[in-house]
Here is the input.
Amino acid sequence: MFTPFVFVLRIAIAWLLALMLVSAVWNALPLLNRVEWPLTVLGMVTMALVVVGAFSHVGRVRLIAGRVDKEALDNRQRRQVEVPFEAGEAFDLVDAAIRELPRIRQVESARDSLQVRATVDRPQDFGEYPLGRWNPMRWFGIPRNRIHATVVPGHDSGSVTLICEPESPAWSDWFLVDDGTNFENAEAITRAISRRVAERRRNEKSEAVQTATEKELTVAKLSLLHAQVEPHFLYNTLASAQLLTRSDPQRADEMLGHLIQYLRRSLPSTDNELSTLGAELERALAYLEILRIRMGPRLSVQVDVPENLRPTPLPPMVLQTLVENAIKHGLEPRTGGGTVWIRARRVDDVVTVTVADDGEGFNTKNSGTGIGLKNVRERLRLLYGASAALSVVANFPHGVAATLSVPPALPPSTPSPEARHG
Here is the structure.
């Protein structure tokens, strides 16, 4: 109760001193000093309106702020707001928040200096002032407020200094009140900034959850692909081995050995997210050796993979997918079969692994659905981002060449295959 009383008393004393000065000037003028009653009436009416206006200001501030203290009653409001974004984003938030204020008149934005200036009309919350332009609360001063916001860059954040004040000199605060409009503007801008920050955080969280969900679904699909051993390949291999046991037991034993090696690399394990070029090559060669026994001289295999490149991290099944495509869509449809080449090279910071064949080439009849290649590209994207790629081109003079381009090492946040097997 003491603060509102002091506030009203301060304004009343300021007006009283001003009226006393006017009275002294009045009495010093010839002729006018003989008529004192107009000045007396004017002084009494002025003081009554000033006190009523001051109490009205106190009441409205209590209604808006829920408290009455020096900070809330002040015509000039200052806020310090920390925005957890870099200075440019913080500036955009502040600028948008100010532009959305009701009764905004003019907004000047200076992005280079990270400043925003604006003027805003005061609302007529109580209708027209009593006595209109004869009310002493409207004798001087401008019924508008101004806003000045400055963003100070920090480390991955921006500190916003917000000032809301009347568009009149500071000395007028001894005589005039703003009816809490600057406190209201400061709180409204602060709320708008907080709301926008919270909305940005919610959107980021929602996008992160969506990305994580999509990644989990993709990994689940790819894990299913990894765990999948094609039934017809398994059945055909076992049938061929059974047939060979009667005519050529040694070749049957060789085929079963390659099948065991293939299954050892193909069946799901607890650490099936990463592999190496060497391990994937062993799987692919086991697969090709089985097919060489089945296809005979129709299939030729040539491998050129240096030992120093075999530890290169590689998602499981990607090499196998390219080899299977070369067989199914390139060589099997051809009566005379053909050759599969597997070649690896390192150029600067890129390891390229190429699987090529001299089969049917880009034949729509034998091109398949493209799901396997799509899964390969998705696995590369999840593991390496934009630093890995898959290209599929025609192989001269016949066939197709598919090339994986991957970094020689994993991103720093990804455990190595050796660590996974350790």
Notes: The chain has two domains: 2-200, 228-421.
